[in-house]
Design brief:
about 140 residues, alpha+beta, seven-stranded antiparallel β-sheet, 1 helix
C-alpha cells in the first residue's frame, strides 16, 4: 500500500467501520425503551414445496396475517412492537414436524416443536429498565 492509500484508509475508511456495525445492529433495534424487536421463525423440518402449509401471526399493528404459500424454510418475520402487544404465531404443516420460535431483541424466549401444528400466543411485556419478556396468554 502506498502512502496515499494508507492515509485514505486511516482517515476515511477506518472511522466508518463502527458505523457499519451500528447500522447492521439497527435493523433489529426499535424506536425506544418501550419497544422491542420481535422475530417469529418457523422451521418446517422435512418441508417440501408441495407440502400443505398454513401460517398465521400478528404483525406490528396487531393485525392477524396469514399465508398458505411458503417458498422458504425457515420462514421469518421481524418487526418492532410496543409493551402490551399481542404476539401470536400458529403454524400447520401437513408433512411432518414443525418448530416455531419467538425472539425478543435477538434472544429466543419461546420455542415449541410439535407434530404438524404449533402455537405461541401471549403478550410482550417491557419493564421500566427496557427489558422485554414474553407472557403466555
Amino acid at each position: 500500500m502506498n502512502k496515499l492509500s494508507c492515509s485514505i484508509f486511516l482517515t476515511v475508511i477506518l472511522p466508518l467501520i463502527p458505523l457499519v456495525f451500528i447500522s447492521c445492529n439497527g435493523s433489529d433495534s426499535c424506536g425506544g425503551s418501550d419497544e422491542a424487536s420481535v422475530k417469529y421463525e418457523v422451521d418446517m423440518g422435512d418441508w417440501q414445496v408441495d407440502c400443505l402449509t398454513r401460517l398465521e401471526w400478528t404483525d406490528e399493528n396487531g393485525a392477524t396475517k396469514s399465508r398458505s404459500s411458503i417458498n422458504q424454510n425457515p420462514w421469518r418475520e421481524t418487526f418492532c412492537a410496543a409493551d402490551g402487544a399481542h404476539l401470536y404465531l400458529y403454524a400447520r404443516v401437513d408433512c411432518g414436524e414443525v418448530t416455531i420460535k419467538l425472539y425478543l431483541n435477538n434472544s429466543i424466549v419461546e420455542r415449541t416443536t410439535r407434530d404438524s401444528r404449533a402455537t405461541i400466543d401471549g403478550y410482550l411485556r417491557i419493564d421500566d429498565d427496557g427489558k422485554a419478556t414474553f407472557e403466555d396468554k
